[in-house]
Write a structure and sequence with these properties.
about 575 residues, alpha+beta, Rossmann fold, 9-stranded mixed sheet
Length: about 575
């Protein structure tokens, strides 16, 4: 207790002296505002930081969130930073209402671990002590760093000894944002071998490398982590980011996510001036600033939910005698990729090395008629209420299989893609729809031999299947469409599969969207084609590009011939129903 008291007294005296000194380095009229502070000595080591206050914005609170960013290139071996962080990070973020502190630590090789983490923790202590005069919200301090700075930031947040030495704990941090970091210094990770010389200079012994590895200190009660890397990063950094967040989650951490910045590399990922840089959106969303903050929170909630969703394909695994293990098939990979057309599916492998499936007919037999009924026609209704109607006899030659596992994953509802529409309907709502939505692979129907389009509809209803999705019937569920011209019926049932989402003549489906944050089926339900208001139906057929843009979806893509033909088909049906 005496030592802690002496430490606090020593810290208070140091902070008081630094506060007076910092007033001397106020930069009046600088490019970063009247209260930027450059070269602030924040601790006993004489290491320095630069502070840039948030600029006033229309929705800015009285106290701004703070991003404390650990600078450094290879722990200072090649200078404090090769990037102009004041221009790339501080200037654009403070314009959005975020204060930024750029933290420098003692450099290697003149200094070695634990000097870097000690300095970063001391800088956090200085920022906390001066939060009021800096206009910073002490409850919204985020610690970040890039490359070696990411290792330092992650270590300070996870190993309690550094903040404890400053009479602080990890709760002082609202979140941690390591960018393109190195999290296991002890293990020479593939793609990062060339960094081993730097390891030896900054962490000269194996024990120091182990002690300084953030992955060795993962714990469930650590602050929230947003682990960033760039899609085109240096080899090894993407794998390191994904592995680190997985290690945190395995330790029981509820809020640890990895995001890749599409189109960015190891350097451009730091360019917060670029509004097209996904890392900027992710970082601001994590801090809770900007129009995308809510969407980002929903995305985080969605990722958490779909790791252990309430819907599962695991009940299929009870049919152990029917399950067959299959080697890689390129057609299966192409089938999965075609379903996730946006290319952003979380958990979808680039290739499917192996898969587990049950022959469709064997599955129906095992389920029994009491559960699925009997008959020639199979009706599949998936989690989004999309529907596919299949003629079993026509399917048999193409070896239909129900895929229930991909590369060891037994619950395919964990394999999801997130998306967002602008609005649910083009004519009912004027405000944007804020929900993040999802489509999930679930169990899905796959054919070992490619069937012709006349046998299998081009429908999403073949994916997202549960054991409750299967229903057999003796009569054709789409018989009400049998008197249509062949071309019209084929268009509605197979080519565009309209009735897999909508109803026409009271047959078909009523598909909706699944809210990503909780897996609930919500809004945007497909109406019967005849029920769309006349002007809405006209716009849908003839103004596809404009309507799709209003809704935030891809257009169906109708040829001029089919624009007119589909329009007239529905108009005739509507008028006929009125006459009746």
């Amino acid at each position: 207790m005496r030592e802690q008291s002496r430490k606090r007294n020593r810290q208070a005296a140091r902070l008081g002296a630094l506060s007076a000194w910092a007033a001397l380095v106020l930069i009046s009229g600088s490019a970063f505002g009247a209260e930027s502070r450059l070269g602030v000595v924040y601790g006993d080591s004489e290491a320095t930081l630069d502070f840039f206050p948030a600029l006033p914005t229309a929705k800015a609170p009285k106290r701004a969130p703070l991003l404390a960013f650990v600078a450094g290139r290879f722990w200072g071996i090649e200078g404090s930073s090769s990037f102009p962080l004041a221009e790339l990070v501080a200037a654009p973020l403070r314009a959005e209402g975020i204060s930024v502190a750029l933290i420098r630590h003692r450099p290697a090789p003149d200094h070695t671990h634990p000097a870097f983490a000690e300095d970063a923790a001391s800088a956090i202590a200085w920022l906390v002590a001066h939060a009021k005069e800096l206009g910073v919200d002490p409850a919204r301090i985020f610690l970040a760093g890039h490359a070696s700075g990411a290792q330092v930031a992650a270590l300070v947040a996870l190993d309690p000894r550094y903040l404890t030495a400053e009479d602080l704990d990890a709760e002082v941090l609202a979140g941690v944002i390591p960018i393109s970091g190195i999290y296991d210094l002890e293990r020479k990770q593939a793609g990062l071998e060339e960094l081993s010389n730097y390891y030896q200079l900054a962490f000269p012994t194996r024990s120091l490398q182990r002690e300084a590895s953030p992955v060795r200190h993962v714990r469930a009660d650590a602050p929230s982590f947003l682990v960033l890397a760039s899609q085109q990063d240096i080899s090894g950094f993407v794998e390191a980011a994904a592995g680190f967040s997985r290690s945190l989650r395995r330790a029981g951490h509820p809020e640890a996510e990895t995001f890749l910045a599409a189109g960015q590399d190891h350097q451009s990922v730091l360019n917060m001036n670029s509004k097209s840089n996904p890392a900027r959106r992710h970082l601001m969303g994590f801090i809770g600033v900007g129009e995308g903050a809510r969407a980002f929170r929903d995305t985080l909630a969605a990722r958490s939910y779909w790791r252990n969703p309430s819907t599962s394909t695991e009940p299929f695994w009870a049919y152990t005698e029917q399950i067959k293990h299959h080697p890689e098939e390129p057609r299966l990979t192409a089938t999965v990729r075609a379903f996730f057309k946006s290319g952003g599916a979380r958990g979808v492998p680039i290739a499917v090395p192996q898969y587990d499936a049950i022959d469709l007919f064997a599955l129906l037999d095992a389920m029994g008629s009491e559960r699925v009924g009997s008959g020639r026609w199979l009706v599949l209704t998936n989690l989004r209420n999309e529907r596919a109607v299949l003629d079993l006899e026509a399917l048999r030659p193409y070896e239909p299989r129900v895929v229930i596992g991909l590369d060891g994953e037994k619950n395919l509802f964990r394999v999801v893609d997130l998306y967002q529409t602008q609005r649910r309907y083009s004519w009912r709502e004027s405000k944007p729809d804020p929900w993040i939505l999802t489509r999930s692979a679930g169990a899905f129907l796959y054919f070992a031999l490619p069937p012709p389009a006349s046998v299998v509809p081009n429908a999403f209803g073949l994916f997202g299947l549960t054991p409750e999705s299967f229903q057999l019937t003796d009569s054709d569920p789409l018989a009400a469409l049998s008197d249509l011209e062949d071309a019209d019926r084929n268009f509605l049932v197979r080519e565009k599969a309209c009735v897999s989402c909508h109803q026409f003549r009271s047959v078909g489906a009523r598909a909706g969207h699944i809210r990503a944050s909780d897996g609930e089926l919500v809004g945007g339900f497909a109406l019967p084609l005849e029920e769309y208001p006349p002007e809405v139906w006209r716009r849908y057929c003839f103004e596809q590009t404009e309507v799709a843009a209003e809704l935030g979806v891809r257009k169906v893509g109708l040829s001029p011939e089919w624009q007119q033909r589909l329009f007239e088909l529905v108009v005739r049906e509507r008028e006929g129903a009125t006459d009746r």
